[in-house]
Amino acid sequence: IVIKCKAAVAWERGKPLCIEDVDVAPPKVHEVRIKIIATGVCHTDWEYLYETEKGMKFRPFPLVLGHEAAGVVESVGPEVTKFSPGDKVIPLFLPQCGECKRCQCPKTNHCRKNWENTQMGVLADGTSRISCKRQQVFQFLGVSSFSEYTVVPDTSLAKIRSDAPLDKVCLLGCGVSTGYGAAVNTAKVEKDSLCAVFGLGAVGLAAVMGCQVAGAKRIIGVDINPDKFEKAKAFGATECVNPRDHSKSIQEVLVAMTDGGVDYALECVGSPDVMSAALESTADAWGTCVIAGWTETEEMKVKVLKILMGRTLKGTYFGGEPKMSLPLDQINVAFGLLKSGKSIRTVINL
């Protein structure tokens, strides 16, 4: 049976989302239909709507954005064996089929099951399960959590504990996993090390938390919005720096503060200039810089000597509060709060 519900539809780039009545089709083979309970509003959603083809590859409109969420299984399609109606779940924009070469490799989480399709907003059969006004609506990254109901592949879903608070664990669907994983899994931050985290949004705060859990001695938060410093310190930052307070470059400031550079720098902004600064803030001979900020089309500049002297440059993909809670019809307000820096992560209750 088709479910009729509300969704925030992006009809075209650069325009606010519209709350529309949509139809969500039943799940097909190896698909699961879920009721979204809570969804985070990630900067990647905003960037795709307002800066597509700048830092983001083009994906077709109309579409329903949203990729960081938690919900409850409503129904399952044929051949689905790992999920049942009523299960609490987190949809994943990065699949895990458990069978391919990449899933079998302990070095990566980069499964490619249905990857090309979901990146373009459709599922395995090349179509979306969401429609509006008799028109197909594409599913952003194969998820579309800015809808009260959505359908995802069973390889793009994680079952969680039945007592999990969905308005909190939804952040595991992107921001927290990415930032925390960047510090713990990719950088492999060591005890008593010196760390710098560039960007103190949800991903950055999770990175700070990861550095603290790993036992870092100093964790320097870097952001141009000083309103984020207090929260960063609550998450584990030992000090914070605003690049705009200094005449020298932020990398020069950090090198001076740490007598030669940090051991680990985590870039959680998605800006090529910040990426370069993060790399140059690390100590030569052993410094490691991890890129967690998202951009698809831009290029960063790297001076060969910075690598030649022994630094390591790595990337990570998919590896909060405080967050505000708003109803779905306030989705455009959430984008405004995100862009202004007044909210670390807004969670929409559906």
TrEMBL record:
Q: Which residues form the Enoyl reductase (ER) domain?
A: 14-348
Where does the chain cross the membrane? Answer: none
GO cellular-component term (any): cytosol
Superkingdom of origin organism:
Eukaryota
Recorded GO MF terms: S-(hydroxymethyl)glutathione dehydrogenase [NAD(P)+] activity; zinc ion binding
The alphabetized list of GO BP terms reads: formaldehyde catabolic process
Matching entries from InterPro entries are given as: ADH-like_C, ADH-like_N, ADH_Zn_CS, ER, GroES-like_sf, NAD(P)-bd_dom_sf
Q: Which UniProt keywords apply?
A: Metal-binding, NAD, Oxidoreductase, Zinc
**Required co-factors:** Zn(2+)
Q: Which family does it belong to?
A: Belongs to the zinc-containing alcohol dehydrogenase family.
Q: What is this protein called?
A: Enoyl reductase (ER) domain-containing protein
